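Re-run with default settings, no changes from the original entry. Doing this only to confirm the output is reproducible before filing.
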Amino acid sequence: MGGMPHPFTPLDFQLVLLRRMADHNPGLVDDARRQLGVSAGEMREANKRWQAMLHAPGGRAAANRYRSFLGTPETTATRRIGDLTCESWLWPVTLWPTLRFEVLLSPTGAVWNEWLIRAPGTPSPTLRAIPDLTPWSCTVDEAATAFAPAHPLEGTAPTRWGLAFTAPDEQGVPREVAAEFTWGLLQRVSVRG
């Protein structure tokens, strides 16, 4: 039986993004999956294939892997992050038209980071208080900028990030907040005290 496996596609990759987010927001993920016209089984299968690619002996380097199924980046640019200069590759993501998937590459071509960011030229959301921090409403950079100074928290798994910051609640009372992000997109916040 086993014919040629079908190529991994941008749709498959979006399913991988969603699969990682399903732990926090299964309802949003189910809605997005239906919008893409795929079943939960197809999402699991895409994730299984992704994991196999990541762990395949002699597999493609991460940067080449992204180019192989996402194609040529929509945009490439040089970015400075602190003292480091890196190359940024951006691809559109159908599910989130105002976001781009960004891969940051070191001067040697190694992938430093891979996550969702706001598309260049697209306005950031207005983030003033905790009620503005709804799932999928903002990226890591946007939350860190809106509620500076923000401090990184250790992620609970690969592709997950955390931020700690102070933000006002509904009554304007400053609260300590821990925000969790998957693939750079806000998933949930917890208020400490």
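The mean pLDDT is 90. The longest strand covers residues 84-92.
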